[in-house]
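Researcher: Good morning. I'm working through a list of sequences from a screen, and I'd like to move beyond sequence-only analysis. For each chain I'm collecting a predicted structure so we can compare shapes side by side. This is the next one on the list. No need for commentary yet; just the structure.
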Amino acid sequence: MPEQAAIRQEIDRLRRRAERHRRVALDFASMDDAWLAQDEASAIDREADKLEADMFKSEGVNVLRFMRRP
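Model: Good morning. Structure tokens for this chain:
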């Protein structure tokens, strides 16, 4: 399952990137910049969620049980 391991690594990388965006958002003085960073973090999380859902689907797992709610 090297392909699954590669997908899992990409998901983890995206989650770390989203967390970095959230931490950066806390340091912005401008609320507009902070909101933009939070929006970017949410978009990255959605991308990771989609990859994870696709991975689960390929394994035959009921995806709806594992989807995170924003």
